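Service request form, structural biology core

Requester: graduate student, group of Dr. S.
Request type: structure prediction, single chain
Budget code: on file
Notes: please return the result as structure tokens.

Sequence provided:
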Amino acid sequence: MEKPIGASRLFVCHVENSRFVYLHSEYHNQAIQTIENQLMDQWSALLPFPRGTISTYTACAYLEMNGKIEHVYRAIVANVNNGEVEIRAADHGWRKQLPIECCYSGRLRILNKQFADAPFMYVCRFASSMEHYPHFSETAILRRVMPQGSAVNVRCEKTKGTAPYKADFINDKGENIWELVEKIKADEHVVHPCFDLVHYDDKRVRLLSFHVPDGYREELEIFTPFAKGKMQLTNFLHSIISAEYPANFVMDEFVFRVTVVREKLRINL
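Core staff response, request fulfilled:
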């Protein structure tokens, strides 16, 4: 995944924690709007996943419905387990849990090569983020001071490495965001368990912002497809074509459609 060049004015798309801050440039925003509009226009032509073919790290299209409002995102399957599928937004970073049945009923669909561009975003981290274990109390403050869509000035360190890139973050008021987080932590009596020890009966304990939502999980390592910076398309169609046709068959020269009939694939040419 690319590294922001020099001092860049970027826009926050998602704060996972101090280790993973997902950011957009103006170019990213324009490219995402274009590709998501195209996905929405072509949604009915995209194929659903046949049962049993959704697998980890596979890129897909995800239809989000909020009342009458629908929006399609590029997504990547992060995990399939216990009747649920966890997806990551390929161009935004956030994650979501979905019932596996709704995924096979059409909420997830197969991406084709037209939508295989690398994720349109940067992933950066705060300089001290690898020195301690992230904690929700700290993450909650970060999300307050870096809301989605807010502008931030990012200066990455001139060092070699891969995403997430170590950076300093300055808001439009010229405030160092990490210093602002530390001030809020002190004002609100937030204690990070890696740094602070207090007596059990201390008054300060009763004031801690220490309530972690159910099901919350801290992300400690970068999501593998984000580290590689590419989209992995499903390959089960290629396997079916290869089994049915000779080696010199060129799939891109044909128009084909896959339908699911009684959980089996039928190829209509």
